[in-house]
From TrEMBL, chains A, B:
One Pfam family linked to the record: Alliinase_C
Protein known as: Tryptophan aminotransferase-related protein 3
Record organism: Cardamine amara subsp. amara
Keyword Cell inner membrane included in the entry's annotation: no
Database matches in CDD domains: AAT_like
């Protein structure tokens, strides 16, 4: 009897395992054709780079069958990025939004995307002639609705290969409304300090319809109310993080609003923007600068059509691979109404700003533009001033070139001159990786402490 | 004794299953964080669309939790694309390279890519300042070496968001070598028939440095050997598939070679091209038009640097998501030296051309430009003339507008006028899906058969 029971029990147990393993092997949740790719992605993720670097599937040497190598953060080296280079120059130049990387590593399962070899091979989505994913358009509208930072009703949405492409597309589209019969090209202006991409594009592409004219305030004096003008308003502003308003108005003025930084990480959400032409960038929304994705909200159909023509003739739309990935990333963001990512990102920048403020408060040589805490409709509470960049001024008369002063102290920022203003200013990026920020704060401490050494020696 | 044995056996069996299932759950080859994404991709792949459509991960309704819907091929409808619309107009307009889709479905496991949420968030690859993957550059050189269609030694490679962006970048870069002091802009020419994108870009972007001048042969008469000229040579040519040579030369002439179609599917590989500036497109290499990826091989460093500036200012490089995928796709292509994909693609086009030739051989109303079979260095044998498009001429005096003749017969091609030549010509795309081609050949048969009805009735 006892013997029969034991055997019965073991048979049941065996059956359980048999069914379990059959299920694992044959249910669609046990990958078949995705297995190799999944294994490779997981293997790359398991490569340890000591928390000071990252191994990527397309790292150097993978074609030779080597496992993806560690790509070390600035100032770290060695096979596993475990060696910290002493007295290494800090890079605080670019707006590389890696401060959000830890969030995405924490969302590994939710954010992963598997792309089949036959995914969207066509030029067009089902809706004949469209280069843009309709579902992606929908989730972008949802995102704006949960954040409350932009009106999306009765707006056309157009995608770009980064906001970069959309700046060029919108400026070009608006310059064309200038009757080509008119001999005089549209003037492009922005109030200083401004993001230098506007100027660089206009001067390099050299459209016969457009001329970069510099500071909007200067133009305001000369405004003849006839010459067509395009003003770009960046709010919050790059480099100084301040809310910015259009300087010009009138029947001859068209305005582009660059809202790349109008997200709860960087600035209080005070209202839903409702402009004729607004630009947004994935880089500053989720931190995926490498994906090259941005979007524009456009009120006027004619302008939208001209922007579409621009995007079509310059790239035939945005990579469908990227559109698939962005859809998944934004799903993760809005899943909890943005709660997790915006709190994570704001929390990170808040800590960094507290450190930078503390260090520079000890200085009389360098001043930092800041703003009082403000109420944010998204967080439903007062929040600190935590823009992407520290906009620093060198106060000493002899410190004419602030960039060079910092460069000498082994901190590479971006020269104020590149933003159409004085060399007395330098922009320091605070949105890079934690390693980058830690190096920056250490070098800043050193630089500021020298003031007091100087003071003591007097 | 017997009882002990049975229990021992069952324990061993249980252990086996326990270990097996533990292995499945914890070894890196049993995905963990990639599991959800893999399951979703496999589920989308399992959606049956009756072989007349495809369901994609980002299809309409997925945000509402619906499973990806079937997106039906032209002339098919119904939830599972099983309904063929009778007497439905054929679309033979675009160069959508879906003839290669069955190859990639057959390579599901080899070509799948899993992208993590933190993959390449930065603007740059490890090599500071680079927007382009070094491994991708390497495999592109390998590809050219195995196919033998281009010299890659001592060449700079630059990526673009489709060859589309590279056409604009190369034309702009070459127009800038024209000293901006010179009052006269560079002239852009191409011998007719030419791909109309060249003209559309030049006329829409309206660079102060460039003017589209039309047919290279016409310009040759007017060539003053002083005015700077840029000639684009498309070989094999779009639309007519013929090998093309530069018409102009001289110290004032710069040449761009568009080799988008110089692959063994379309044309014999007769030599390794070795030009100053050559363009290639992933769309016509692997069939992934939607990925928007192309590359240029550039001899001159100054030209390369100006093209890089163009790509930087217009999009800050190509999506890193796309670069990861393209690396995997090209791995599959060169794994067997291109044997499988090029034979598959050439075989498909060969069959299609045999059908089209047979149908049009019955016609006196329509003539088709063809070429004798030629030896291909890649296949190491003589191959037929199988370009991407049928370039058809309407021979009857009264058939002035060939596009309209075909349109009336429910076949949408592309008007010869769009290629800078007569309306007597129409371009029919032969590289779309098998469904598209079958519909085209049926409608063509109908159209041609009407000639004989006419003849009989005389």
């Amino acid at each position: 009897m006892e013997k029969k029971l034991l055997i019965a029990a073991s048979i049941i147990l065996n059956l359980r395992f048999t069914i379990h393993s059959l299920y694992n092997n044959f249910s669609i949740w046990s990958p078949t054709w995705t297995n190799r790719a999944a294994g490779e992605a997981e293997a790359a993720a398991y490569v340890s780079c000591s928390g000071h670097g990252r191994a990527y599937l397309d790292g150097i040497g993978v074609l030779d069958g080597h496992k993806p190598p560690c790509e070390c953060n600035n100032c770290y080296t060695g096979k596993d990025c475990s060696i910290l280079l002493q007295d290494c120059p800090v890079d605080a130049d670019s707006g590389d939004p890696l401060f959000l990387e830890p969030f995405w590593i924490g969302k590994a399962e939710e954010s992963a995307v598997v792309e089949s070899g036959w995914h969207r091979m066509s030029y067009q989505f089902e809706e004949l002639g469209s280069f843009d994913s309709a579902e992606l358009e929908r989730i972008i509208k949802k995102l704006h609705n949960v954040v409350g930072n932009a009106v999306t009703d009765d707006r056309f949405i157009i995608f770009g290969t980064g906001a970069t492409q959309l700046i060029a597309a919108s400026v070009h589209a608006l310059s064309l409304t200038n009757s080509s019969s008119s001999s005089s090209p549209s003037r492009l202006v922005s109030s200083v300090p401004y993001y230098n991409m506007y100027q660089q594009q206009a001067e390099f592409f050299r459209s016969a319809h457009l001329k970069f004219e510099g500071d909007a305030h200067v133009w305001k004096q000369r405004n003849d109310n006839i010459t067509q003008v395009i003003e770009i308003v960046t709010s919050p502003n790059n480099p100084d993080g301040k809310a910015k308003r259009a300087v010009l108005d009138g029947p001859n003025v068209k305005t582009i609003h660059d809202y790349a930084y109008y997200w709860p990480y960087f600035t209080p959400i005070t209202h839903q923007v409702d402009e004729d032409l607004s630009l947004f960038s994935l880089s500053k929304t989720t931190g995926h600068a490498g994906s090259r994705f941005g979007w524009a909200l456009v009120k006027d159909k004619a302008v939208y059509e001209r922007m579409k023509t621009y995007i079509t003739l310059s790239s035939m739309g945005v990579s469908r691979d990227t559109q698939l990935r962005v859809l998944q990333l934004l799903k993760v963001v809005i899943d909890d109404g943005g709660d997790e990512i915006f709190n994570f990102g704001y929390g990170t920048l808040k800590k960094r700003w507290e450190i930078v403020n503390k260090i520079l408060s000890m200085s009389t040589r360098f001043s930092l533009e800041t703003k009082k805490p403000e109420y944010c409709n998204y967080f439903k509470r007062v929040r600190d001033f935590t823009p992407s960049y520290a906009w620093v001024k060198c106060e000493r008369l002899e410190d004419i070139n602030c960039y060079e002063i910092f460069k000498a102290a082994k901190i590479t920022g971006r020269n104020g001159q590149e933003f159409g203003t004085e060399e007395r200013f330098v922009r320091l990026s605070l949105i890079k990786s934690q390693n980058d920020f830690d190096q920056l704060s250490n070098m800043l401490k050193k630089l500021v402490s020298q003031e007091h050494v100087g003071a003591d020696s007097i």
